Amino acid sequence: MTDLHYEYLGQRFRPREESEQQLLLFVAPARDIRSWAGVPRKAFDYQHGFQRTLNQSRVSEISQYFREDTKNISPTSIVVGFTGAVTVEAAGPVVQDGVELIKVRITLPNLTQLPLNELTQRALAELRSRIPEAIIAQIETNDAAAAAEAVKLVDEEVVDETFGIQSETALDIDAVEPEVQDRSYLADFYAQLLGYSRDLLPWPEEGPLREILYSILRPAIIVDGQHRVFGGAGADENMHFAVCAMPKSNWSESVYQFVVINQA
User: What pLDDT score does 176 carry?
Assistant: First the structure.
């Protein structure tokens, strides 16, 4: 299987002198961002699935806006959180006030070349690293019952064909915590995925499921700007966007920043 490689020249800085968090700034075309950044969905995990379901009507409207005139652009950055398979190295001296030139390199397998079963096994392995061992053990002990219960809960939540929950409530910033509750969308999705892989449940439509698995396995998630990326790619895959990236960002940090951006 062929790996995909991307490289960008950018800048790195600390937004606050006493902060450990760094930010990366670079420019990338829409087609690249869609390739290495996943879009989290609420249907499979409160912590990872904090984004709204991708609204195809809104994507179409944005695509139409970009098609109408080449002067129509998006000056606002796409915010992403990097979770892995990304290296950052200095590309020059510190320019000014702690800002340094860097090269951002992103490497990932071409997930589209993987058969669905192998893609599923990789996603299950990744999910095991995010769910408490006790919850995993509970699901594995009675996988058939756990899978059936997860499907029942999904049906009750009114889920659309892209696994995105249609009915939304505003996120409470105080409720954003690590996954330590007895149930979570992540655990339920893990139980479902396990059920598919063990032929305990009928496989759903392959296309939408693949998109969800890609989002789990890609080395970045879009914290803000998913509709602009997909709308821009629909109009012109070569359209460039400014990207503001958080390196080594865990899921809780990405959720927190999503809430800050959308509720501040």
Answer: 38
